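dude i think i finally got it to work??
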Amino acid sequence: MASVGDVKEAAFKFIDQNRGWLSEFHLEIWNYAEPAFREYRSSKAYVRLLRKEGFEVEEGTGGMPTAFMATWGEGRPLLGTYAEYDAVPGHNQKPVPYRAPRDGLHPYAAGHTDPHSALGVAALFGVLAAKHAMEQYGLKGSLRIFGEPAEKVCGSKPVHAAKGYYDGADAYISYHPGYANYVRGEIQGGAYWSVLFQFECDDPVDWYKLIAVDPTPYRRGWHSGGRVPAALDAVCLMYMMTKMTKEAMLPHTAYWTLNEFIMVGGQCTSDNLPPKISQIQYAYRSPTLTMQERITRVLENNARAAAKAAFCEVYERWITKTRVGLPNLVMSEVTYENLKLVGPPRYGEEAKKFAREIQRNLGYEPMAEPFLEHGLTYGGGEAEKPILSPREMDELIRKAHPAWIRNMGSDDYVDYTWHAPTSRFFTARPVLKPLPDGRPYPWWVHVAMGGNPSTIDPCIITAAKTIAATFIDLLMKPEILRRAWSEFNERTGGGIGGAKWVPPLLPKDFEPPIDLRWPEYISTPRGEEWWIPTPKSRKEFKPL
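look at this
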């Protein structure tokens, strides 16, 4: 029987021999740059490739057209991971060392900031490498990879969890590109909730009746009457009240955030008629579900008050609700050992040349060694070690937060952690050394390096090998899974359904919010356009 080392070596060899293919597929996804719930071409590319590789694929999982579940193999253990592929509106950039939007697209179209393109391709090739090694050595077991759209709004994983897609697995691995190489330990991700309030002013007759001074029926409203405050005013009131009450929602002693996005803003009604519909979405993250509930109560109270003041009806629609992450130190340690085995990303001369061009184009003297060797720590300083252990990462986070913090930040991977033992790890994306005058690099630098193969491929390859190696350990060392499940059962008070187990926060019949007006690319007689109908050039505008 082959050794674990032999099987891992076969997986690593597969990745090394297919680096060109890996890089090309990553660029395909990176160039699609499709935002949340609108990743049509990206998800199709994954599905097409996985079917070609022999996976059984269910498309449109959970009622989400751009989600999927792909499974290969037979028997236990069933090991899973996931791909993300959504991009971020407003971050359109070519993979070049200067500011340049992609050809033919609006400057404020989407781009990969994190980048999720690298996240998804790393998970994909980690699974394919493990599959190849299993076939080569006749190992039994099953591999599963989910297609998870809309991570930027934490949209898909709580839906998959609520509808039972994560049930029955033996272990999961969660990966994300980061600014250093590390594995999460006790401190996992916090909760992320998002809710939309829709204000409607469908029948403002009472308002017209109140203000009419002319008894003539025709002059009691419509174009000649005073305009009811209506839906647009309700959104403005909601926005301002929430800005004011945000100071009193929760103490400023922990990392929590509350942000808003106006989805619909009156929708171009005639200037003297009341806007009939408006929508404002709130997204908030915090370390505990209790804090999330407090924020929700304040938001709902504000929405009712705004609606009443503006003579509107208000409706609430949930976008998502995640739980907080559940640690599993057994899984964290085995992933950490494999990340150490693979080693951190390394940058060649081509990557350094690209980085120097960025520095030169920003007006600085290029550095001989432009990259931070080990990336950044959680606190923003240069990492002292190539790879940080789960314990070291916990210590760094605790230095920046109160002692009671058990969860921080947010990401919907946390929903996996309540259905099987799960590890969460990061590999360093390219990080440039600080500029001499302390000026931060502009946002486009990070996006450009995420699309340049010489700078982003090392991050992807390190992650893919770590995923494959961890899967192989779980396949060939059953005692790891026994210990991981023992820890899972202890932390949940008896396993799934136990006294301390937290069920999905969305109902099983939850309808994903795919019908809302999310940003997207559209096709018109004018060609393909970004959703905001602004000219591609600014010659029609003048600065104010």
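The chain has a mean pLDDT of 93.
im so relieved honestly
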